[in-house]
Design a protein that fits this description.
Layout lengths: L6 H14 L6 H11 L5 H16 L1 H8 L5 H12 L4 H4 L8 H9 L7 H4 L4 H11 L1 H11 L5 E5 L6 H10 L4 E3 L6 E4 L9 H4 L3 E3 L2 H10 L6 E4 L6 H9 L5 E6 L2 H14 L4 E5 L6 H4 L5 E7 L14 H4 L2 H19 L2 E11 L8 H10 L3 E4 L1 H6 L10 E3 L1 H4 L4 E8 L2
Parallel strand pairs: 5-6, 5-8, 6-7, 8-9
Antiparallel strand pairs: 1-3, 1-4, 2-3, 9-12, 10-12, 11-12
Helix pairs in contact: 1-3, 3-5, 4-5, 5-7, 9-10, 13-14, 18-19
């Protein structure tokens, strides 16, 4: 159902955008809080507000260029509706003033090719420069275009409770259009974005919402029955639950994180999953004394490191405006320290997987190369070789997923094994 476009609805979008553009908090948290405070907004109204303000976050630089010297939150929204969402002046009529008609017409008529490359890609200058150095100008244009579209909704089947075929059949019976995901053997891609929280299949724990790219980390880990496995930066536990199911609910799986809140969010997911081999543990930092007891004992350790999140811009477009060269530099120091600490837990012959959802070589290749140079006991295992054992055809020594090539979030991962 489409929202009825009114001045009041437009005012809600303007109010949300004003809060978002301060960049004090993550965009999804700001939008969620606003909706909690304005429960009179229906589902369609909320969808309109969220999609419109996110269009401004995604296309911010080019929209600002189109506004020129008439830049304001209101004009950004009008131009976003006209350009990013393709609305006509007739559709804008309920809120468009006569004095604004020329601005909207001129904004729509501006040729994109006239913008500087970083503006055309809707990226800050520093980020465009780094990505152009890595990928080249032509590919960055394709990457930026993909990042400016919303991500599809992916599910991961909980193999401890169901098969992919069974979940697809149940979804079809509920009238939810879905197909098997192209890369992950456990993945399902939905055509739309239905509300799933009350779906019986979800409540039974048959699936979790998880980007297809993230699911591949489980296949790089290849956990076996009865092993001791560590998810070092577990967060809310999406990958933890994947590993637990792959271990057939045997062995011991430790989920470490520094955040009580994130580990608390894991609890209801863990209860739904039916797994009993997961042990959440809060730690103070990567040098916490609790970790020393694990030295040299873990069969497999996953480090899904804290990162800039720039591979997730389809979902979190505000990150490109909230991150900076300085914040990335701070993160790379943290990433190297965490990887070094995690490596101490790996037993001889064991496996260490380092992963981020960043696009930047500084957080990815450079961290792994520096680690291998300073840890001669570890050797790189080609990711393509590991994935091929599971029927996943991707090339390269590293897992490198990009939205414009794979229709996943941007992911990086490296597989290393301890020789001695």
């Amino acid at each position: 159902m489409k929202a009825r476009f009114t001045p009041a609805l437009f005012a809600h979008a303007e109010a949300v955008l004003g809060q978002l553009l301060r960049f004090d908090h993550p965009a999804d948290a700001v939008v969620s809080r606003y909706f909690r405070e304005h429960r009179e907004l229906g589902h369609a109204d909320r969808a309109f507000v969220a999609e419109t303000v996110f269009a401004v976050l995604r296309r911010g630089r080019s929209l600002e260029a189109r506004c020129g010297d008439k830049l304001s939150d209101r004009n950004l929204l009008l131009v976003a509706l006209a350009v990013a969402r393709g609305w006509s002046q007739r559709e804008l009529a309920p809120v468009l003033k006569a004095s604004e008609e020329e601005l909207v017409a001129q904004a729509k008529a501006m040729p994109e090719a006239d913008f500087p490359p970083a503006v055309r890609c809707d990226l800050p200058d520093w980020l465009y420069a780094r990505l152009e150095a890595q990928f080249g100008a032509d590919e960055v244009l394709k990457l930026a275009e993909a990042l400016n579209h919303p991500a599809p909704l992916d599910l991961r089947v909980n193999t401890f409770k169901a098969t992919r075929e069974a979940v697809l059949e149940r979804l079809a019976a509920e009238g939810i259009a879905a197909v098997a995901a192209p890369l992950s053997p456990l993945g399902i891609r939905l055509r739309d974005k239905p509300a799933l929280a009350k779906s019986p299949i979800f409540l039974e724990g048959a699936f979790e919402v998880q980007d297809e790219g993230s699911q591949l980390l489980g296949y790089l880990m290849e956990p076996k029955r009865g092993e001791m496995v560590v998810d070092f930066c577990a967060g809310a536990g999406g990958k933890t639950l994947l590993l637990g199911a792959m271990m057939k609910n045997t062995g011991r799986l430790y989920a470490y994180d520094v955040s009580d809140k994130r580990l608390a969010n894991l609890k209801p997911r863990l209860a739904r999953s039916g797994l009993s081999n997961v042990h959440p543990v809060r730690i103070e930092h990567e040098r916490d004394a609790k970790l020393k007891r694990m030295a040299g004992k873990a069969d497999r350790v996953l480090v899904d490191a804290p990162c800039s999140g720039l591979g997730t811009l389809r979902r979190n477009p505000d990150l490109k405006w909230r991150q900076s060269e300085e914040s990335v530099a701070e993160l790379t120091v943290k990433q190297a320290s965490i990887l070094d600490a995690a490596a101490k837990m790996v037993r001889p012959g064991g496996r260490l997987v380092y992963a981020t959802c960043s696009l930047l070589a500084a957080e990815n290749d450079a961290i792994v190369e520096a680690f291998l140079a300073s840890h001669p006991g570890f050797a790189l295992v080609p990711a393509a070789t590991v994935l091929a054992r599971h029927g996943i055809a991707l090339d390269g020594d590293y897992l490198r997923l990009l939205p414009h090539r794979h229709n996943t979030d941007g992911f990086f991962a490296a597989v290393m094994e301890r020789q001695a």
